[in-house]
Amino acid sequence: MTDFSAPVALTAHLALVSSISFGGFPTVLPDVRNFVVSTHGWMTDQDFANMFALAQSIPGPNMILMMSLIGWRVWGFPGAVASAIATFGPPCTIYFATYRLWDRFRDAPWQRIVRRGLVPVVMGLVIASGTVMARTADTTWQAGVVTLAAAAVLLTTRLNPIWMLLVGAMLGGLGLL
Asked: Domain segments of the chain: what residues?
Protein backbone atom coordinates (compact mmCIF):
# COMPACT_ATOMS: atom_id res chain seq x y z
CA MET A 1 0.00 0.00 0.00
CA THR A 2 1.67 3.25 -1.09
CA ASP A 3 -0.92 5.83 -0.05
CA PHE A 4 0.72 7.87 2.74
CA SER A 5 -2.59 8.48 4.51
CA ALA A 6 -2.97 4.76 5.37
CA PRO A 7 0.11 4.45 7.61
CA VAL A 8 -0.65 7.82 9.20
CA ALA A 9 -4.20 6.71 9.98
CA LEU A 10 -2.99 3.38 11.36
CA THR A 11 -0.29 4.98 13.50
CA ALA A 12 -2.65 7.62 14.88
CA HIS A 13 -5.29 5.00 15.66
CA LEU A 14 -2.80 2.70 17.41
CA ALA A 15 -1.45 5.62 19.44
CA LEU A 16 -4.98 6.51 20.52
CA VAL A 17 -6.08 3.02 21.51
CA SER A 18 -2.78 2.23 23.21
CA SER A 19 -3.32 5.30 25.38
CA ILE A 20 -6.56 3.85 26.74
CA SER A 21 -5.65 0.17 26.87
CA PHE A 22 -6.33 -0.64 30.52
CA GLY A 23 -5.18 -4.17 31.21
CA GLY A 24 -2.78 -4.27 28.29
CA PHE A 25 -3.10 -3.95 24.55
CA PRO A 26 -5.20 -7.10 24.09
CA THR A 27 -8.13 -5.23 25.65
CA VAL A 28 -8.36 -3.02 22.57
CA LEU A 29 -7.92 -5.78 19.97
CA PRO A 30 -11.61 -5.68 18.98
CA ASP A 31 -11.22 -2.03 18.03
CA VAL A 32 -7.97 -2.66 16.15
CA ARG A 33 -9.55 -5.59 14.30
CA ASN A 34 -12.53 -3.45 13.34
CA PHE A 35 -10.22 -0.65 12.15
CA VAL A 36 -7.90 -2.76 9.98
CA VAL A 37 -10.37 -5.42 8.76
CA SER A 38 -13.86 -3.91 8.61
CA THR A 39 -13.17 -0.20 8.18
CA HIS A 40 -10.13 -0.19 5.89
CA GLY A 41 -9.96 -3.75 4.50
CA TRP A 42 -6.17 -3.89 4.84
CA MET A 43 -6.48 -7.59 5.71
CA THR A 44 -9.03 -10.33 6.18
CA ASP A 45 -10.30 -11.78 9.44
CA GLN A 46 -8.17 -14.85 8.76
CA ASP A 47 -5.04 -12.69 8.24
CA PHE A 48 -5.75 -10.90 11.52
CA ALA A 49 -6.27 -14.19 13.39
CA ASN A 50 -3.08 -15.62 11.88
CA MET A 51 -1.06 -12.57 12.95
CA PHE A 52 -2.53 -12.88 16.44
CA ALA A 53 -1.61 -16.57 16.60
CA LEU A 54 1.91 -15.89 15.34
CA ALA A 55 2.44 -13.07 17.83
CA GLN A 56 1.10 -15.19 20.71
CA SER A 57 3.47 -18.04 19.87
CA ILE A 58 6.56 -15.89 20.33
CA PRO A 59 7.82 -14.93 23.79
CA GLY A 60 8.20 -11.27 24.60
CA PRO A 61 6.12 -8.21 23.81
CA ASN A 62 3.71 -10.03 21.51
CA MET A 63 1.19 -7.22 20.97
CA ILE A 64 3.96 -4.89 19.83
CA LEU A 65 4.99 -7.61 17.39
CA MET A 66 1.42 -8.06 16.17
CA MET A 67 0.92 -4.33 15.59
CA SER A 68 4.30 -4.27 13.81
CA LEU A 69 3.09 -7.05 11.50
CA ILE A 70 -0.05 -5.05 10.77
CA GLY A 71 2.06 -1.94 10.12
CA TRP A 72 4.31 -3.99 7.83
CA ARG A 73 1.25 -5.11 5.90
CA VAL A 74 0.05 -1.52 5.48
CA TRP A 75 3.35 0.24 4.69
CA GLY A 76 6.33 -2.12 4.87
CA PHE A 77 9.23 -1.56 7.25
CA PRO A 78 8.44 2.11 8.06
CA GLY A 79 4.87 1.06 8.91
CA ALA A 80 6.16 -1.70 11.20
CA VAL A 81 8.40 0.71 13.10
CA ALA A 82 5.71 3.41 13.34
CA SER A 83 3.12 0.87 14.53
CA ALA A 84 5.47 -0.51 17.18
CA ILE A 85 6.25 2.96 18.52
CA ALA A 86 2.55 3.90 18.47
CA THR A 87 1.77 0.73 20.44
CA PHE A 88 4.29 1.14 23.27
CA GLY A 89 5.11 4.87 23.19
CA PRO A 90 1.92 6.46 24.56
CA PRO A 91 1.34 4.02 27.45
CA CYS A 92 5.00 4.11 28.46
CA THR A 93 4.91 7.90 28.46
CA ILE A 94 1.69 7.97 30.48
CA TYR A 95 2.97 5.41 32.99
CA PHE A 96 6.29 7.20 33.37
CA ALA A 97 4.61 10.58 33.86
CA THR A 98 2.04 9.36 36.39
CA TYR A 99 3.99 6.76 38.38
CA ARG A 100 5.47 9.23 40.86
CA LEU A 101 2.07 10.74 41.54
CA TRP A 102 0.47 7.32 41.93
CA ASP A 103 3.28 6.15 44.23
CA ARG A 104 3.15 9.35 46.27
CA PHE A 105 -0.51 8.69 47.15
CA ARG A 106 -0.26 4.89 47.42
CA ASP A 107 -1.91 4.86 50.85
CA ALA A 108 -4.74 7.21 49.91
CA PRO A 109 -8.25 5.72 50.16
CA TRP A 110 -9.18 6.85 46.65
CA GLN A 111 -6.43 4.70 45.16
CA ARG A 112 -7.99 1.51 46.51
CA ILE A 113 -11.35 2.61 45.09
CA VAL A 114 -9.80 3.26 41.67
CA ARG A 115 -8.11 -0.15 41.65
CA ARG A 116 -11.32 -1.94 42.63
CA GLY A 117 -13.25 -0.04 39.96
CA LEU A 118 -10.75 -0.91 37.25
CA VAL A 119 -10.91 -4.67 37.89
CA PRO A 120 -14.37 -5.21 36.31
CA VAL A 121 -13.52 -2.81 33.48
CA VAL A 122 -10.37 -4.74 32.60
CA MET A 123 -12.13 -8.09 32.96
CA GLY A 124 -14.88 -6.94 30.61
CA LEU A 125 -12.38 -5.70 28.07
CA VAL A 126 -10.40 -8.94 28.18
CA ILE A 127 -13.58 -11.02 27.76
CA ALA A 128 -14.70 -8.82 24.84
CA SER A 129 -11.28 -9.18 23.23
CA GLY A 130 -11.34 -12.96 23.63
CA THR A 131 -14.83 -13.11 22.15
CA VAL A 132 -13.82 -11.07 19.11
CA MET A 133 -10.68 -13.15 18.53
CA ALA A 134 -12.66 -16.40 18.89
CA ARG A 135 -15.28 -15.21 16.41
CA THR A 136 -12.52 -14.09 14.04
CA ALA A 137 -10.55 -17.34 14.21
CA ASP A 138 -13.44 -19.84 14.38
CA THR A 139 -14.18 -20.11 10.69
CA THR A 140 -15.39 -23.73 10.85
CA TRP A 141 -17.76 -25.54 13.18
CA GLN A 142 -14.88 -27.76 14.35
CA ALA A 143 -12.86 -24.73 15.47
CA GLY A 144 -15.92 -23.39 17.26
CA VAL A 145 -16.37 -26.67 19.14
CA VAL A 146 -12.70 -26.67 20.16
CA THR A 147 -12.99 -23.07 21.40
CA LEU A 148 -16.13 -23.82 23.42
CA ALA A 149 -14.57 -26.98 24.87
CA ALA A 150 -11.41 -25.11 25.85
CA ALA A 151 -13.45 -22.35 27.48
CA ALA A 152 -15.52 -24.93 29.39
CA VAL A 153 -12.40 -26.74 30.61
CA LEU A 154 -10.81 -23.43 31.66
CA LEU A 155 -13.90 -22.36 33.58
CA THR A 156 -14.58 -25.68 35.31
CA THR A 157 -11.11 -27.07 36.11
CA ARG A 158 -7.72 -25.90 37.28
CA LEU A 159 -5.99 -27.52 34.30
CA ASN A 160 -3.04 -25.58 32.96
CA PRO A 161 -4.05 -23.84 29.68
CA ILE A 162 -0.88 -25.10 27.98
CA TRP A 163 -2.54 -28.54 27.72
CA MET A 164 -5.43 -27.05 25.77
CA LEU A 165 -2.98 -25.28 23.47
CA LEU A 166 -1.18 -28.55 22.86
CA VAL A 167 -4.43 -30.40 22.09
CA GLY A 168 -5.47 -27.59 19.71
CA ALA A 169 -2.05 -27.72 18.03
CA MET A 170 -2.30 -31.48 17.61
CA LEU A 171 -5.81 -31.24 16.15
CA GLY A 172 -4.65 -28.52 13.77
CA GLY A 173 -1.50 -30.46 12.86
CA LEU A 174 -3.60 -33.51 12.04
CA GLY A 175 -5.78 -31.38 9.78
CA LEU A 176 -8.88 -31.76 11.95
CA LEU A 177 -9.43 -28.00 12.33
From this structure: 5-108
